[in-house]
Amino acid sequence: MPGSGTRSTATTSVRADAVRNRERIVETATRVLASNTSASLEEIAGECGLTRVTLYRHFRTREALVNAVYARALDSLEEALAAASLEDETTGHGMQLVVEALFAVADRQTILVAGPSADYGDPALSRAFDDSLAPVRDLIRRGQAAGEVDPELPDWWLADMAFDLIIAASWRAKAGQLERDRIVPLVLETLRRTAKPG
Questions:
Q1: What pLDDT sits at residue 4?
Q2: Is it the case that residue 112 has pLDDT exceeding 90?
């Protein structure tokens, strides 16, 4: 049909623009919210160089945008833990790799430390959080089976604790209350004492 190829090309171009705009919004929001936790959608749109209408087309509420920013940070965490190849590690060395990966991600994705709270009651974000820490839970279960980790402590509890300790320590470091080079050893020692059998 005449003109169908042109319409198809135009539609593809519009979709590509929409994807680029969404990526730009999430990237800008990550930066803006990390430095200004109360930034509005209008302020983020201005930083993006987009109109408020364009931003609302992608994110109808501030909560939806905050959740998208956190989901992106959790994607980074999932990639970092996958790269650590925890399935080949002993419990002790594996937990060190976990803590180092968590710290590296928190250091880059400052929204996790300094930004507004995400809504982890959101099913999609809750799944993203659980998926990102799946390799850590697997490592902990192997440690429990080997008698190296207290079997009375749920694997999800210890995995969440590792995440929360890194966030808390990173926040303290940014506030000047903890030296950065103490974060990893301090979190590791806390986890070891907590998870020690008996």
A1: 57
A2: no
Which tokens hold the place of 89? 């590690």
Q: Encode 81-130 in three state secondary structure.
A: HHHCCHHHCCHHHHHHHHHHHHHHHHHHCCHHHHCCCCCCCCHHHHHHHH
Check residue 12 and give its pLDDT: 61
Token pair of 117 as six digits: 């709270």
Residue indicated by tokens 């799946």: 134
Residue 198 is predicted with a pLDDT of 81
Helix, strand, coil percentages in the chain from 3-state DSSP, rounded to 5: 75, 0, 25
pLDDT bin (cut points 50, 70, 90) of residue 8 is low
Chain position carrying tokens 């169908």: 4
Q: Please give the Cα distance from 120 to 67 (Å, whole number).
A: 8
Task: Give the tokens for residue 143.
Answer: 């440690």
Q: Write phi, then psi, for 165 (nearest 5 degrees).
A: -65, -40
